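Sanity check. The docking grid for flavin-adenine dinucleotide depends on where the pocket ends up, so I'm generating a full predicted complex first rather than guessing from homology. Inputs follow.
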Amino acid sequence: MGSNNEQVKDLVIVGGGPAGLAAAIYAQRSLLDAVTLEQEAFGGQTILTSEIDNYPGLPHADGYTLSEAMRSQAADLGAEVRMEQVTGVSHDEKSGLFTLDTPDGELVARSVILAGGATPRRAGFDGEERFASHGVSYCATCDGMFYRGKRVYVVGGGNSAAEEALFLTRFANEVILIVRKDHLRAQAAVAQELENNEKITVRYLTSIVSLGGDELPNSITFRNNETGETTTETYDEGSFGVFVFVGRVPASELVRDLVEVDPVGYVVTDERMATRTPGLFAAGDVRKTPLRQIVTAAADGAIAANSAAAYLGRPVEG
Ligand SMILES: Cc1cc2nc3c(=O)[nH]c(=O)nc-3n(C[C@H](O)[C@H](O)[C@H](O)COP(=O)(O)OP(=O)(O)OC[C@H]3O[C@@H](n4cnc5c(N)ncnc54)[C@H](O)[C@@H]3O)c2cc1C
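Predicted complex below; grid placement will be based on this.
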């Protein structure tokens, strides 16, 4: 047993995004001995967002400020929140206890909320991993500024690709949207905005095959998905970048043996955020839900913490 395992926690919350931090706040209000573990940055995907226009009461919030407000609100209420990655979760049916592995040891808990969100899906072209963070990005807000006055390719045909392409016109001279199919899946209003923006061109029926170069990419090869023909464009090293927005992968791997998942891997819960394992809950983007937003993640987190408190026989809200 590692240094973490001094006591059995009421609740461990895996992930410190909006779902995890809302759960931390509600767990604190139910007087649970809970800890929230975050592997990368509190706020989760929210911290990657430049401007949030749809979180009620906070028009034009920026993601960093909202993330920090959520983290500090939880901490100020007395919630234990710390940077630590959970690398494994197991469940002992007899005792009902969960054991969570972390690089610092093990944690034992009576209940767990999985709020690990989702991570960007890779587009799958050659050179994507090699040039990640050096020419290939999954976050326009984080990396857009590095492409001021340059050319960027945006991969994807959905809403996030379209919105991020529009955002990147603030920096880049030229934004080329690379769409695998012959149409966009983005909402009509967003597609119209793309069309009206002079800096943006859309290449339909096109995929990126590979990126070439040394430290930074200097060539890019495309395939025409109709004819199969490939073409290579060559530029000065570092004069262009590729932003990939082709969906996300839910962080459900940790609990795959303990929950039902849908074909994509999203965790199936009931309306109380309960999974098929008693005491194990899932909240936010990691679960099967019709809408993945900050407001829904926070609501899920609140419900999950309330459900955990009820499971533990503690006071609940409402
Ligand atoms: C570019 C972009 C723009 C967006 N814009 C908006 C917007 O304008 N409005 C809006 O409402 N929503 C927006 N969203 C969506 C919104 O950010 C998400 O729906 C929301 O953040 C989901 O919250 P979550 O807590 O479920 O997951 P996440 O925010 O993904 O947080 C999950 C956290 O869990 C951590 N984690 C994962 N696995 C582990 C582990 N094993 N151990 C420890 N920690 C772990 C991750 O590091 C992460 O910090 C946007 C998303 C993106 C990517």
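Relevant for the grid: The pocket of flavin-adenine dinucleotide is lined by residues 14-20, 37-41, 44-46, 48-49, 52, 54-55, 85-86, 115-118, 251, 254, 284-285, 292-295, 297 (CB under 6 Å).
Also worth noting: The first strand starts at residue 8 and ends at 14.
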